[in-house]
Structure formats: structure tokens, C-alpha cells
Amino acid sequence: MSRKKRLLWQLYPSYLLITLISLMAVTWYASTSSRNFFLEQTASDLEARAHLVERQISVHLDPLDPKGVDLLCKKIGRRASTRITIMLPSGQVIGDSEEDPGKMDNHADRPEFNGALNKPYGASTRYSLTLRKNMMYVAIPVKKTHPILAVVRTSIPVDAIDEVIDNIQIKIAVGGLIIGLFAAMLSLVVSRRISRPIEDLKKGAERFARGDFQFRLPVSNLEEIGGLSEAMGEMALQLHERINTIMRQRNEIEAVLSSMVEGVIAVDMEQRVISMNHAAAEMFGSIPSEAKGRSIQEVVRNTLLHEFVTKALSSREPVEKDVVLSSDGERFLNGHGTMLRDAEGNQTGALIVFNDVTRIRRLEKIRRDFVANVSHEIKTPITAIKGFVETLRDGAVKNIEDADRFLAIIEKHVDRLEAIIEDLLALSRIERETEREEVVLAEVRLKDMLKTAIQVCEATAMAKGIRIELSCAEDMVAKLDAPLFEQAVVNLLDNAIKYSNNEGAIGVEATQTDNEIIISVSDQGCGIEKKHLPRLFERFYRVDKARSRELGGTGLGLAIVKHIVQAQGGSVAVESTPGKGTTFTIHLPRA
User: Which helix (H) or strand (E) holds 351?
Assistant: First the structure.
């Protein structure tokens, strides 16, 4: 690639070259004209001298006096510093101011001689064999009557003329050089005057390209460039305004996309990512800036997603599909895809919006499991009750011992149904109060509330020889709904008693940090396997269903604990080691 030249160094050489060529032409013309003029003047002077000689020499020609002619030539030649030659019409030299006529050749072949015979005068500039130098000759005819008596020729050396002309040409050349230098400087000034505003325009355009639209171009006094400067300044203002509008719109769109909880991905026809918001990047474990321009297959390795993108690009109607991600646990995304079109209506890609419906799908599953579990939990005692009622109707009622035994079993199942219904109603009431924000929190001495809960469970614990040990500061205060929270602690204690070995111990401990109050209930029971812990607070979830029913559990106790704690702004967690025991921990914000 050729190196770019500045405008100044393109204009200046051109101007300088044109100026120098013009100056050389003028100098040559002036030199040539002056030379020709000087030669013409010299020729005229020689002609005038020849006419003077003609008037003086004519008396020696008729009759012819060669000796007198020669003497007169030498006399006049010395005075006039001019060579004078007199020739007869035959070309014979009869007088010469510098040479012996008798030794000179016939001059009939000389051009100036022939010119004088045929014209008013003849002139010639040539090398003289006699004098061995360049000479200028002018010859005129001498006429007394009609016949030509002789030819008078005057001449001077051309070297003297050339010296004068050379001096004149040197002066012209020096003047031309001075004019040339002045013209060169003037050309530079003119070139700068033209190029500088253009360079200013270039610098201004570069600043505009860097985004400095506040820069104002200097207005040149040249009409065209000044108009261009004003036009570029106006263009910069309009461009600045439009870029600001585009930036503002882009920022608004980015703000909207960034604040959306839905994941948004735009892809082109080759399935390359055009745009991806933060929600989508979080869903697929990517970074928006790194995903842009890459294939969707590189960004997200999920077959269902790739199929959905392909379908969205090929379908003219909006498409919808659930996509399941399994990288960090099962996650459900509901995708809606539609075509992207440009201003002319041509398809340029597809826009896909993902909603994270994991919680909804899990809630749907929990609802289905809940319905199935409730049905199963209620059906079991109802089936038993119905069976024993039919047995009694078939005659067992007449046997007092059997009837009492069957009625006791029926009563047990009725109590179980009642407990399930009461727990369901309690759970429903807690959820309703939480949703309506009807849970009233008040400052409570935590140790007193925990003692009350322990007293509720004390009889059951004593029946198994289990000790309940409390550790809580006297002045510890918590902001909570005392009756509800007491129920949660009772449920945890009841659960610990059921699954603790006889003659064991249960620990209830309350501590506090700068931000929260921590209440833990620990037992020394059989413990729970790790795989069951995430689902332990689900409704009707049991680790050992047979043992749970045998111990009289409804499967709702821990679910009630979770909802009570959450209603009061806290959280509950569980840790367990099989064979060593389980610890339930409640975290509450400090009052």
C-alpha cells in the first residue's frame, strides 16, 4: 500500500512546477526576444553606418579609384570601430578596413552580397574565414544611377554582441531566479492557505470519529471550505443528537432486559447469539459479553434447547416448549420463540424468551403428591374403620370383648383422622395468615416460651425416660408470635421424643449473634440419611412410613414448623448423622 501524502505536498509541488515552467518560458522568451531585438538593433546600426559610408565612397566609384576606396575604408573603419568592405558588382573586393583587398577572395557567393544586389540590403551572421571569428554583416548597394556601382558592407564581431546579450540574459536569469524564489514562497503560502482549512476539517472529522461532537470547526474565509466547515459542524450536531437518542434507547432496552427475570436470547439465521440478557446468562451459566457472536450450541449444550431454537427459526408462528436443564439440579424453563424481522419484513433471526417455571413445576408436583398423600393418609383409617364397622354389623357386636377391641381400633383411627384434619387446618390457617400478613409479632422472653413448650411435652418424654435440657439466657428476647412459635417448638420436641431411644436426652439451646437468634433442638436418636434431608419439610413426607404411622405421626408436623418459622421471618434447617442423632435449627432475626 502506497504511503499517503499530505495535501500540502500535493498542491505545493504542482503550483511550484507550474510557476517554474511559466517562469522559464517567460525567461526564455524574454532572453530570446532581447537577443533578437539587440541583433535587429545592431543590424539597423550597421545599415545606418553603411549608408554613411555609401555617401562618402560614391565619389571614388565614378570614375573608379580602388586605392582611394581602400584608404577611405581604413580611415572610416578606425573611427567607427567597424569593419568596412567595398565590393564591385562582380564580387571583387576593392577596399577593406582591416585586410589587403588584393589578398581577399571574391565575395560573389556571400549571402549578404547577394541580398544587397537583389534587395534594399542584405544581412548575414556567420564565421569569417578571413578574421576567423563570428561576424554580423550588413550590405547595401551603391547606386548613382540605375546600375549598381558597388556594394558597401559593414560588420562587427558577434562575440561582442554575444557578451552584451549574455549579460542581459544573466540579469534576466537572476531576476527570474528572484521571481522564482518569491513565486515558490507565494506558492507555499497559497498551498498552505488552501490545505490548512482542509487539514482542520480532517482533524475535526477525526475528533468527530472519536466521539467529540462538542468540537467546533474553524470557519475558513474561503467560501467553499467555509461552507463545508459549517455543514460538517451541523452534521456533527445532528449526529451527536442521533447517537444520544440511540444510546438512550439502547440503555433503556438494556435496562429493561437486565431487570427482566425472564431470560431473553436473540439469535441470527446461523444460530449465532445476537444478544443475551443477564437472566438468560444466569439460567445457562454463561456471560453475555462472551456469548455474543458465538453459536448457541457453543454457549449452551442442551439438545432440547437446540431443537427449540431450530424450530423457532423455521416456524412462521410463535412456538412454545419446556426445556429441562440438569447441570445444577433439575430446572424447568418455559420457552416462547418468535421470528425477528428487519424493517423490510425479512427474517433476520429469532427471539426466544425463557421463564423459569421450576418452582411452578415443583409446586405442581408437590400438589399432586399432596393430593395423593392426603388421599392415602385418609383412605387408610377410613378403610380400617369401614372394615371393623362391617365386622361389628356381621355379629361381632354381640361379643363384648371383640366389640370393645374393634371399637378401640376404630377410635384410634378416628383420632388419627382428626389429627390429620387438625394439622391440615392448622397448616392452611398459617399459610392464610402469612399471605394476609395477619401474623402479629411481639417481644417475648424466649426462655419462658421455651419452658412452656417443654412442659407440654414433658409427660411424653418422662414416659420414655428422656431428659429435656434447656440452655437459654434469662434476658434473651425475641420478636415473634408466641402461640404459633410455641407450636413449632412443640412439634420439634414431639418429633425428637418419638425418634429418640429410651433413657436418652434432648437438648434445647438458644443463642444469639449480632443479626439473629438461633434455637436448636437436638436428639440422640437413630438419625436420618442425607438423601432424605432436602424433602424432610414436605407435607406427608416420611423417612420410615411404617414406623411413623406406628408412632402416630401425621406427616405434617415438620411442614407446620417450616411455615410457622417462615411466617415470622425466619428459616429452619436440619442436620443429621445416622446412628448419632438429628439437630433442627431455627434462625430468627433479632428484635
Answer: strand 347-356
Question: What CA–CA distance (Å, rounded) separates 447 from 418?
Answer: 32
The answer for residues whose C-beta is within 8 angstroms of residue 313's C-beta and 6 or more apart is: 267, 269, 271, 339, 347, 349, 350
Quick one: cell of 57?
565612397
Same fold, 11-164 and 260-353: yes
pLDDT band at 1 (very low <50, low <70, confident <90, very high): very low
Let me know how many helices (H) and strands (E) the chain has, helices first. 15, 17
Q: Cα separation of 99 and 155, whole Å? A: 13
For 104, which DSSP code? S
Question: Which range in 220-224, 286-290, 330-334, 336-340 is most confidently predicted, on average pLDDT?
Answer: 336-340
Instruction: Identify the DSSP state of 501.
Output: P
Q: Is residue 65 within 8 Å of 71, Cβ to Cβ?
A: no
- State which H helix or E strand residue 392 sits in: helix 358-393
Place of cell 577572395: 105
pTM: 0.44
Q: How far apart are the first and last CA of the chain?
A: 77
Q: Could you tell me the residue ranges of all domains in the chain?
A: 11-164, 260-353, 362-434, 437-589
Sequence-distant (≥ 6) Cβ neighbours of residue 11 within 8 angstroms: 191, 194, 195
Taking only the tens place, the pLDDT of each residue in 205-255 is: 777 777 776 677 666 666 666 777 777 777 778 887 888 888 888 788 777
Determine the 3-state secondary structure of 259 from DSSP: helix
Q: How many CB atoms lie within 10 A of CB 206?
A: 11
Give the H or E element holding residue 540: none
C-alpha closest to that of 335 among 268, 270, 284: 284
Backbone angles phi, psi at 337, to 5 degrees: -120, 140
CATH topology of domain 437-589: Heat Shock Protein 90 (3.30.565)
Fold type of domain 11-164:
Beta-Lactamase (3.30.450)
Strands 93-96 and 83-87: antiparallel
- Residue 279 CA to residue 286 CA, distance in Å, equals 10
Strand pairing category for 477-480 and 148-157: unpaired
SS3 for 445?
Answer: strand
Q: Where are the beta strands (DSSP E) in 39-145?
A: 83-87, 93-96, 122-128, 133-143
